[in-house]
Amino acid sequence: MNVVILGCGRVGSTFARLMHKEGHHVTIIDLQSEAFRRLGQKYKGGRIVGNGIDEDILRRSGVENADVFVAVTQGDNRNIMASQIAKHVFNVPQVIARIYDPIRADRYRQLGLVTLCTTTIASGLLHDFVVKGEWGLAKDYSAEYLAANV
Amino acid sequence: MYIIIVGGGNVGYYLAKTLSEANHEVLLLEKDRARYRTISEELGEIVMQGDGCQADQQLEAGFSRADAVVAATGSDDDNMVVCQMAKMEFNVPRTISRVNDPRNEKLFHKLGIDATVSSTKIIYNLIEQEVGGGEIIPLAALNRGNIEIVEIEISKTSPVAGRNIKSLPLPAETLIISVIRDDHALLPTGDTVLTIGDSVVALVNATHEPDLRRVFAEGL
Question: Domains, chain A, ranges and CATH?
Answer without folding.
Answer: 2-116 (3.40.50.720), 118-150 (no CATH)
